[in-house]
Amino acid sequence: MADITPKTIAVVILNWNGKALLEQFLPSVVAHSEKAHLYLADNASTDDSVAFVQANYPQITVIQNQGNYGFAKGYNEALQQVSEPIYALVNSDIEVTAGWLDPFLDHFATHPNTAIAQPKLMDFKNKSYFEYAGAAGGFIDQYGFPYCRGRVFDTLEEDHGQYNTPAKIFWATGACFFIRKEVYWELGGLDGDFFAHQEEIDLCWRNFNAGYDCYYLPEATVYHVGGATLKTGTPRKTFLNFRNSLLMLLKNLPQGKRFSIIFIRLCLDGIAGVQFLFKGNLRHTLAILKAHFSFYGQIAPTMSKRSTSQRKDYFTVKSIVWNYFVRKQKHFER
To answer: What is the model's pTM?
Structure first.
């Protein structure tokens, strides 16, 4: 692994028509990232966000993609032009704090098997609570449902210091995570077929299968708005989440459990679709159906992406759905 010293972190912010977010959140990133090189990866914005950054932040290197490639391919395209050995992929709606880079510089320098790490992710709108997208680090259950220390489904915990110890986790939040450049490309980067949603969990699962570690470092705190680029509760987001979850399972599940678990997951998706229907959310029910048909059409190319080995110990909770909705366990437990 490459030596980790100041100026070996590249903070890369993906942007698409996000001038308002850049105006609000770039000042904190610039003020507290003197130990990093700063990049704006722009997905062919049609507003004047690129011109705004070039005029006001000449220290930020702008990389202009040729189209709106989404989160996954957008980063893959841009990161080919970034040479620093540690990538920090940071959403445009993130407020960082003083010294946020130091824990990562220290950890990567002293833990050569750590390939991915995330900070404590707090809610920008309610700063005493963890934020949905990653909280204090993520896990999945046997059926691929994600949850976090500090967030299970829609239940968010208030931060009382209960997750103030560094910990090995299964996945790091796509809102703000650090990854070694050589491992990023060894794993093939983010899966561009996902476009957005679940792609960071898929990457971390491949990282896990490859034998690398993923860590949560609470000494670094950032605040995330969430839903700023793709609004929560939209059929588009429902489609991406359901389809990408199935693609992720197909790519990463151990050989003997692949089809049985995907079948159960398809049935659970069907129950979710019926619930949407009873609530009058027909568009979300249709989005789940569309997600399933899209998944069926991508089975063959997705199978070709499976790695040569898949670990069986990817989950610690068999069913977070059962624990949450039946046993009423609303907070993180291992």
So the answer is: 0.96
